[in-house]
Design brief:
The complex is a heterodimer.
Chain A (H helix, E strand, L loop, with lengths): L12 E10 L2 E2 L1 H10 L5 E2 L12 E3 L6 H6 L8 H16 L12 E6 L5 H11 L18 H10 L5 E4 L5 H14 L5 E8 L3 H9 L20 E2 L1 E9 H6 L6 E10 L12 H14 L6 E5 L6 H15 L7 E3 L2 H4 L6 H15 L1 E2 L15 E2 L5 E2 L5 E7 L4 E8 L7
Parallel strand pairs in A: 4-8, 5-6, 5-7, 11-12, 11-16, 12-14
Antiparallel strand pairs in A: 1-2, 1-9, 1-10, 3-4, 7-9, 10-17, 13-15, 16-17
Helix pairs in contact in A: 3-5, 6-12, 9-10
Chain B lengths: L4 E10 L2 E2 L1 H10 L5 E2 L14 E2 L13 H4 L4 H17 L9 E6 L5 H14 L6 H5 L5 H10 L5 E4 L5 H14 L5 E8 L3 H9 L34 E9 H7 L5 E10 L12 H14 L9 E3 L6 H15 L7 E2 L2 H4 L5 H11 L32 E6 L4 E9 L6
Parallel strand pairs in B: 5-6, 5-7, 10-11, 10-12
Antiparallel strand pairs in B: 1-2, 1-8, 1-9, 3-4, 7-8, 9-13, 12-13
Helix pairs in contact in B: 1-13, 3-6, 10-11
Classes of the chains: A alpha/beta, B alpha/beta.
């Protein structure tokens, strides 16, 4: 899917604020601290009893800051995915220097990705309902739907512009960011609150285990002997605005979202096209959208699930796009530390990419294990890699069902490129 | 000037049968397509809703081979069938669709598979989970299966925004073409209506129910959009997929357009609860007015409103409030409410909007008899004197989302 260049109002779109919840903690600070240290957030699942599941690990978000429980009316009535989304959105909006709730006349849109929304709460409901329909409480289902987190954010922030949730499995968050980018560029909205949220639930945990796609140990993207993914949970939100709007209020952009592209393998429901053709098409489309050649990309935050087939296909895609440069291209694999956040993975890896660009260093994977001789990649392994002059970075999301999405971020250098 | 975007094909399958002809006939006749839903599992309340607009059996054979169908969830089957119909309607072969994108909305995803999978996990243990059920339980399974079946390698996007989803999918598809990202998109909506889902919607008070015992509506369960007696909607199922093409692509292949997309837009009402409609009609009205303005249109230009009013008490009230606020006291154009025929969900409404823009007559609104003075809208009954030039399709969703698409005739696209 190639784009012909910027259209409409055009101009650069800035990332003016970011927020996150992950297995490394509630907020951007613990996320970056953990990523930079190469510290993985995995542990034995507490959300539900993992005893009967094939695997036990996940990067589970811990308890929220206690002040939230004290000060937020109705907090306990929200689904866990909604709580993640709201925390991340408020952190991002505050970081952008914007005041929420927004006024009725402000053109604010919310674009979210999620795989299962409030499925965890639905499971509790169905466990009761399917045993005895008279006993189940409907309140557990009130924010069950996939659009629950995005709607909750819009409701809480008083957003009156477009609100849309995309559920294209692991590409959802990145696709949402792509649609948000277009909405800002075209002038449809002045501010886009874009990201994703997913919480751990038994449906996806058991489902991926049924596919034998989950590693019993922490995932090892691109490494020899890798045996599958590891789950994570959380939310990530990026505030997107026209660059000139951010500069006009004296704020400092964190990065520029320069382009987005997407494609479909049209190959198989669960297996990637081993040629990497579809994934490469998404990256090439994103670069074309950004008006940037592959040569200016200085690192890639890979989808890197840790499954044998996905990593191999992604490597083929990188070779298609970057040619001989692929072997030396520094790769960041955030899932090694925070797990696979499913519908939110594209969003939280976008946040990680922005943090790497903004801080001028790439976070390591912190994972042990030998290199895979078939995948001669340059993973950032044990220590952060200083890269203060990085010009642009790509973040990839390659999903169940063959949906691929890629985002191109460029470093904010103080002037528009 | 922005390049025109056309709808060049329409495929639809649902309670009306398979194809645009059966849907057009049903809409023209104005007969409700509801039938009894299976309540034998015990999920329903004794006094709960009994009807839904359900697929008749045996509709898929021409469009889906058994070997393809055996691996698909019910919504995936419907979506693939509707997509093939749409491509045939557009005069496209359906092969080698390298740059075609797929944008499909679903409110609930593959509910049959999700329910079966949950039962396995919760009652037999997580190791009993079926991998084949899981891979067809994800919301994007229908869009993915369309892409696989048609080798469509453009973007694959699934929209989950309840009742507003199909119009958001159509608008997102139009935006993708307008931005030059893609020349052709298959866009629409799909949903299935299982007994469990039906029972839960009913327990939330969303569905139409029979009137009080001894009253005149004792045996009547109808949607009744805009009617004083309305008490909920009829749940539906099916799939409707439209082929969207850029004007350039249409001219290049010498195709024919059914309708032109003049504008699209969406907004949100933050006063809505997670499962209900709010009271923020003024905010939504600003969104609709912006949508019209972007196309250089005023409310007076609209010849027909194909309303998403479904018979919901609060939803129809909000819809009426939005329309009245946009028209600012001027008389509304004719308003049609086809969900009284097709039911809510499953894309029938989207099909009705495209057919109306093409000039297909919409008949009476089944169940409507008593105007609600608070709403002041009487759905149109019978054909318009002339085919409409501007059709406004509206969808307000429970939870707060709203979407609009403005359609015109496709004659400018004819080669």
């Amino acid at each position: 899917m190639q784009r012909q260049g910027m259209t409409g109002a055009g101009g650069h779109v800035a990332v003016s604020g970011i927020g996150a919840v992950s297995g490394l903690g509630w907020g951007i600070a613990p996320l970056w601290e953990g990523l930079r240290a190469g510290r993985a957030g995995f542990g034995t699942i507490r959300r539900f009893d993992p005893g009967q599941h094939r695997t036990r690990l996940a990067a589970e978000a811990g308890d929220p800051p206690p002040e939230l429980l004290r000060t937020w009316p109705g907090w306990r009535r929200l689904s866990i995915a909604d709580r993640f989304a709201l925390f991340a959105a408020l952190e991002a909006v505050e970081g952008a220097g914007l005041a929420a709730p927004f006024g009725e006349d402000e053109e604010v849109g919310v674009y979210f990705g999620s795989s299962t929304g409030g499925m965890f709460e639905s499971e509790l409901f169905f466990s009761d309902f399917l045993r005895d329909p008279r006993r189940a409480s409907l309140s557990a289902l009130s924010s069950q739907q996939v659009n629950g987190p995005g709607d909750a954010v819009a409701r809480h922030l008083g957003a009156t512009g477009p609100v849309a949730t995309f559920s294209s499995a692991c590409a959802s968050g990145a696709l949402a960011l792509g649609v948000a980018l277009d909405a800002v560029r075209s002038g449809e909205v002045a501010v886009a609150i874009a990201g994703g949220s997913d919480s751990l639930c038994q449906l996806t945990y058991a489902g991926f285990n049924a596919l034998r796609s989950v590693d019993e140990a922490a995932c090892r993207p691109f490494r020899a002997g890798r045996a599958g993914m590891s789950f994570g949970e959380g939310a990530a939100v990026l505030v997107l605005e026209p660059l000139e709007r951010v500069l006009a209020r004296g704020a400092e952009p964190l990065a520029v979202l320069a382009g987005a592209g997407s494609s479909c393998d049209a190959h198989h429901m669960t297996a990637p096209d081993p040629s990497g053709r579809g994934a490469a098409a998404a990256v090439e489309a994103a670069l074309a959208d950004a008006g940037l050649p592959p040569e200016v990309v200085d690192f890639v935050n890979v989808h890197g699930t840790g499954t044998p087939l996905n990593d191999a296909a992604e490597w083929q895609a990188l070779r298609r796009v970057f040619g001989p440069r692929a072997e030396g291209m520094p790769l960041v694999a955030s899932k090694a530390l925070i797990g696979h956040l499913l519908g939110c993975s594209g969003a939280i890896e976008a946040v990680a990419t922005v943090l790497c660009l903004h801080n001028g260093e790439l976070h390591p994977v912190g994972t042990d294990g030998a290199a895979d001789p078939d995948l001669p990649v340059s993973l950032v392994l044990d220590e952060p890699l200083p890269l203060p002059g990085a010009r642009a970075a790509v973040s990839t999301s390659l999903a169940f069902g063959g949906s691929n999405a890629a985002l191109v971020f460029s470093r904010w250098t103080g002037q528009a490129a | 000037m922005r390049e025109p975007i056309y709808i060049t094909g329409l495929g639809t399958i649902g309670p009306w049968g398979a194809g645009c002809g059966p849907l057009a006939d049903a809409l023209c006749a104005g007969a409700c397509l509801a039938s009894e839903i299976d309540r034998s599992a015990g999920y329903h309340l004794p006094a709960g809703s009994r009807l839904a607009c359900l697929m008749p059996p045996g509709q898929l054979g021409e469009w889906l081979s058994p070997i393809e169908a055996r691996r698909m969830s019910p919504p995936s089957k419907l979506a693939v069938a509707a997509s093939r119909m749409a491509l045939r309607c557009a005069g496209l072969a359906g092969g080698g669709e390298e740059e075609t994108a797929v944008m499909i909305a679903t409110a609930f995803g593959p509910s049959t598979n999700t329910e079966a999978l949950l039962k396995q996990i919760l009652f037999e243990g997580p190791e009993a989970a079926s991998p084949s059920l899981f891979m067809e339980s994800v919301a994007n399974a229908p869009a993915a299966q369309i892409a696989i079946a048609l080798k469509a390698r453009g973007a694959s996007l699934t929209v989950c925004q309840r009742e507003a989803g199909p119009l958001i999918a159509l608008g997102t598809a139009a935006a993708e073409i307008a931005a030059g990202r893609v020349r052709r998109v298959l866009a629409g909506g799909v949903d299935e209506m299982t007994p469990l889902l039906h029972a839960l919607l009913d327990r939330f008070g969303a569905l139409a129910r029979r009137g009080p015992a001894g009253g005149p509506e004792e045996d009547q369960e109808a949607a009744r959009p805009f009617d004083r007696r309305r008490n909920g909607f009829l749940a539906g199922e099916g799939a409707t997929v439209a082929v969207l093409e850029s004007g350039e692509a249409l001219v290049a292949r010498g195709g024919r357009a059914l309708a032109r997309i003049l504008a699209w837009g969406s907004a949100f009402d933050p006063t809505a609860s997670p499962t209900g409609w709010g009271h923020g009609h003024r905010g939504l009205a600003r969104g609709l007015a912006r949508t019209l303005k972007r196309a250089g249109l005023s409310p007076a230009d609209v010849d027909l409103v194909v309303s998403g009013a479904s018979g919901s008490r609060d939803g129809d009230r909000l819809e009426a409030g939005v329309l009245r606020a946009v028209w600012e006291g001027s008389p509304l154009p004719p308003v049609a409410a086809p969900k009284a025929v097709t039911g809510e969900y499953g894309g029938g409404f989207l099909g009705a909007a495209v057919l109306a823009a093409e000039g297909s007559p919409l008949g009476p609104t089944p169940g409507f008899a008593e105007p609600d003075p608070e709403l002041g809208i009487i759905p149109r009954d019978g054909a318009l004197p002339e085919p409409p030039s501007v059709v406004l399709a509206t969808s307000l969703a429970a939870g707060g989302a709203a979407a609009w698409v403005v359609l015109g005739p496709g004659t400018e696209g004819r080669s």
